[in-house]
Specification:
six-stranded mixed β-barrel; Dimethylsulfoxide Reductase, domain 2; alpha/beta; binds molybdenum atom; disordered N terminus; six-stranded mixed β-sheet; binds ligand MGD; globular; Rossmann fold; Barwin-like endoglucanases
Length: 817
């Protein structure tokens, strides 16, 4: 197919004229950016002629953007002479809800810069000299496989399987065989590895769910919001974090356009969602949602606006009368509001205003409006929970949905993040049998403690699961599709010190296709293919009530000496004598056939391999209409109890009360605590501490449009379109003599970042945001000129989840003179 014909197709769908498409192509593109990159790689030069005409492609194949933004966009790659010359978006679907054209965002369309990036790892590398010292030697694949297999054997024989660790990494989340599954399967086949619970995204809310709802239960879909009178979004930002025509962005805009549902966004930032889909913005100090909610519920109760009947029938612990047996007197939420609890403070709007920065009159108005809207869809993104006390923020937002009686009804919701409809596409198995062989788990964020002193980690101090304490620390790490060894993990300096000592963690293998800050700390670094260099059945994703799957075709041969994860693991399995168990006698192609077979058993109308290769995308709209969470429970709570101990929604959790007596928070963590109620807890480096600290600004780290975490952060076009910068309010900037675009230093006791100021009223006073994911690039003085926010963040796991508080830190900002 020629490109001109494809442009014609797009034109129908997007209204883009050929002229503007060409302009876009040149700007986002390709020629200027591609040629030097290709030259760097020593590959034949491609002339995609930009404005003067378009290169003819030999073929067009389907694949997808697999980065972890959770949108999952199909891409059509045009290939000429073995080189990807152009990346086009989805050409199927329409603008109708449930049939959306899944149009890739700027990042997806910039894939060529990534495939042909000068940062691509060319061949296996071995560290020489000190770990992290920056000296490397190229080695053969044979040597790499032999070394990894013998290190796995040595560590297993010396310390046992619990000393092996598969590191958290989200770089190829959207894949299936190309996902992060191959390495876990290898490790599980070899007897297993120390497990992990939680993730870097949602640890606190994941830990909060069981104590309120018994398990993770996503809210109604955003498509269902068409039946709402009001949407209230707490730190939920689909327009930036669910970009593309297949993301929730499309659903939110469609609901807004067709149904004009009033929308309030509660966020320290005037996000794109607030700006484009919001009617009202409530700027709030980070980490204080539970205080805002207490202030609002105080108003509702005082004015009789809450849904007492719902609380009586479905909930535990709002009132003294529904507290579980054995709960101390005055431990209900009502007693907390009245100041009869242990803190003795009444939770008036004035009290909440002091903490949150939202004026008391505004809190009253907001409370009345939310209580009056029937039904109201209350959702939260994951920004509010990625905090020092994020578990309580998440639970407080659940509570607001319960107090207003919005749970289990169309147009309502349970205060969690929106749910959606997915297709049950078969996943590549991480292990055979019922469960992975090793049952012991730590929080995925706690690995650094397990390297420093694993055996000191216990159930009540570190949340270790499956055992009272660890017997051994992490001695070997497989770090695949991850930059969380350095860039994406809080407090880069502490991590580097720990890793430098290779008597602690004795062996680290990193697998990636870009040379990241994480690669710097490997002992062996392996060059992976991108997903465009291998085959897959991509499970797709979902938005609203539409799910889809994408054909993963191989567009080009592996670049340089890169290999697929499946090939790497098969080679290592052979050396460990477990090849047959690992592969089940299948090639990657045969695994894909198996995935198709298995999926077609579950979804009879799912296309065959040949059909999907042609179609590219298979989409399906929910046949039962928009998702309404907890409908069964609402209809009949006796027949359909929740998985909580009481079977009801637990506003007061007896389990948490008991844990609060037992769990230990020694030393630096002595200020942490667990609470039976979703109450506001002043945190370390939180809103109150900011007022007396020498670092008086609360620094959050929103997820940014030009990258998915650190993925795409090295692409010139993305950096031009979405440069790194610090958002700072004009009030705070003026006080420091800072003007827009000034070079600034952002610092605290842990580190210093150099970046530029974006002086904007789009962020609350007293708050700054340095979008996470920029590449760490320290200069000779240790100042990070790349602008990585984790240079500033603290390593301090949250109290219940032991999760990542990636939006909690205090900083000071000064102009560079
Ligand atoms: N473009 C893009 N999209 C992405 C990603 C990306 O890096 N770039 N990352 C993907 C991944 S892995 C994930 S986990 C999701 C993350 O999705 P989220 O966690 O929802 O994204 P964040 O930007 O961290 O936070 C959402 C909003 O919460 C606000 N916020 C921060 N602290 C608070 C608070 O205390 N209270 C309130 N009310 N609001 C607060 C932030 O300003 C932000 O606008 O996004 C995914 N999508
Ligand atoms: N302070 C702060 N820190 C944060 C956050 C925050 O809000 N604040 N957000 C956190 C969140 S939500 C998350 S999910 C994490 C994300 O952190 P990570 O999971 O580390 O995600 P990325 O930074 O995108 O890095 C993914 C890597 O995978 C590589 N990759 C891509 N495809 C493949 C492949 O097919 N094979 C291999 N081998 N490699 C591949 C990419 O090149 C990239 O280097 O960051 C967390 N860090
Ligand atoms: Mo995430």
């Amino acid at each position: 197919m020629t490109i001109v014909a494809d442009v014609g197709l797009d034109q129908e769908r997007t209204g883009t004229s050929r002229r503007s498409f060409l302009k876009w192509s040149a700007a986002a593109g390709g020629t200027a950016a591609l040629v030097p990159a290709v030259a760097n790689l020593g590959m034949p030069e491609v002339r995609a002629e930009g404005a003067t005409g378009m290169a003819e492609a030999d073929r067009t194949v389907w694949n997808a953007c697999l980065a972890n933004c959770q949108s999952r966009c199909p891409l059509r790659l045009q290939v000429k002479d073995g080189i990807v010359v152009r990346v086009l978006p989805d050409s199927t679907g329409s603008d109708e809800m449930g049939d959306f054209n899944i149009r890739a965002c700027v990042r997806g369309r910039a894939q060529r810069e990534r495939i042909y990036s000068p940062n691509r790892i060319k061949r296996p590398m071995k560290r020489v000299g000190e770990r992290g010292g920056g000296q490397w030697q190229e080695i053969s694949w044979e040597e790499a496989f032999d070394t990894i297999a013998s290190e796995m054997k040595r560590v297993k024989d010396t310390y046992g399987n619990e000393a092996l660790w598969y590191h958290y990494g989200s770089g190829s989340t959207g894949g299936n065989i190309t996902k992060r599954g191959t390495w876990p399967r290898l490790l599980n086949t070899y007897g297993g590895y120390l497990g992990q619970f939680g993730d870097y995204s949602t640890a606190q809310i994941t830990a909060a769910f069981p104590y309120t709802y018994g398990e993770w239960i996503s809210s109604n879909s955003l498509e269902d919001a068409q039946r709402s009178q009001l949407q209230v979004m707490f730190g939920n930002n689909p327009l930036e974090t669910r970009m593309s025509g297949g993301g929730e962005l499309a659903v939110v805009q469609k609901v807004r356009k067709d149904f004009q549902v009033r929308t309030i966004v509660i966020d320290p930032r005037y996000s794109d969602t607030a700006a484009i889909a919001g009617d009202d913005w409530v700027p709030i100090r980070p980490g204080t949602d539970a205080a805002l909610i207490a202030g609002m519920i105080h108003v509702m109760v005082e004015e009789g606006l809450h849904d007492q009947a719902f609380l009586d029938k479905y909930c535990v612990g709002f009132d003294e009368a529904t507290l579980p047996e054995g709960a101390p007197a005055n431990s209900s939420y009502r007693a907390y509001l009245a100041g009869k609890g242990t803190d003795g403070i009444e939770k008036t709007p004035e009290w909440a205003a002091e903490i949150t920065g939202v004026p008391a009159a505004r809190i009253r108005k907001l409370a009345r409006e939310i209580a009056a809207a029937k039904p109201a869809a209350i959702t939260q993104g994951w920004g509010p929970q990625r905090h020092a006390t994020g578990e309580n923020s998440a639970r407080a937002i659940f509570l607001l949905a319960a107090v207003t009686g919005n749970i289990g009804i169309p147009g309502g919701g349970n205060g969690a993040r929106e749910g959606n409809t997915t297709l049950p596409v078969k996943a590549f198995p991480l292990f055979d049998g019922e469960a992975p062989p090793v049952k012991t788990q730590i929080s995925c964020f706690n690995w650094i403690d397990a390297i420093n002193d694993g055996p000191s980690m216990t159930a009540t101090k570190d949340g270790v699961r499956g055992k009272e304490k660890l017997d051994v620390g992490i001695k070997l790490m497989v770090v695949n599709a991850s930059n969380t060894l350095i860039n994406q993990h809080n407090d880069i300096h502490v991590t580097q010190e720990t890793l430098r000592d290779d008597s602690k963690c004795e062996f680290i293998v990193v697998i990636d296709h870009q040379w990241t800050a994480t690669c710097d700390w490997g002992d062996i670094v392996l060059p992976s293919t991108t997903n465009f260099e291998e085959i897959d059945l991509i499970p797709g994703a979902s938005c609203g009530d539409m799910g889809w799957a994408i054909y993963g075709d191989k567009a080009i041969e592996p670049v340089f000496e890169s290999k697929t994860g499946y090939e790497m693991c098969t080679e290592i399995a052979r050396r460990l004598g477990i090849e047959k168990e690992f592969t089940q006698g299948r090639t990657q192609e045969q695994w894909r056939d198996w995935l198709f077979e298995q999926t077609r058993e579950k979804i009879p109308e799912f296309p065959t391999k040949e059909q999907l290769a042609e179609m590219g995308v298979f989409r399906k709209h929910s046949p039962t209409g928009p998702r309404v969470a907890m409908k069964d429970f609402r209809d009949d709570p006796v027949a359909n109890p929740l998985k909580t101990p009481s079977g009801k929604i637990e506003i007061y959790s007896q389990l948490l009360h008991e844990m609060s007596q037992k769990w230990e928070f020694p030393g630096e963590r002595s200020g942490d605590r667990l609470t039976a109620l979703p109450e506001h807890v002043d945190s370390w480096e939180g809103a109150l501490e900011a007022r007396k600290s020498e670092y008086p600004l609360q620094c959050i780290a929103h997820h940014y449009k030009g990258r998915t975490h650190s993925s795409y952060a090295n692409l010139p076009t993305m950096n031009e379109a979405h440069p790194q910068m610090l958002w700072i309010n004009p009030v705070d900037a003026r006080a420091r003599g800072i003007e827009n675009d000034d070079e600034i230093l952002v610092r605290n006791a842990r580190g210093t970042v150099k970046t530029v100021a974006r002086v904007t009223p789009r962020i609350a006073p007293g708050v700054v945001s340095l979008p996470q994911g920029a590449w760490y690039r320290p200069n000779s003085k240790g100042v990070d000129e790349g602008g990585c926010v984790n240079t500033l963040m603290k390593y301090h796991p949250s109290p219940l989840a032991k999760g990542n508080p990636g939006h909690t830190a205090l900083v000071e900002v000064e102009k560079v003179n």
